[in-house]
Amino acid sequence: MSAAVATKDLTVQFPGLTAVDQVSLSVETGELRVLLGANGAGKTTLMDLISGKTKSTAGRVLVGGVDVTNWEEHRIARIGVGRKFQIPSVFRELTVQENLTIASCKSVSLVSNLGFGLSHRQQRRIDEVLDLTALTGVRDRIASDLSHGEMQWLELGLVIAQNPKVLLLDEPTAGMTQSETRKTAEIIKSLRGRYTILVVEHDMAFIREIAEQITVMHLGRVLAEGDIAAVESNEEVRAAYLGSKGIH
Question: How many CB atoms lie within 10 A of CB 11?
Answer without folding.
Answer: 17
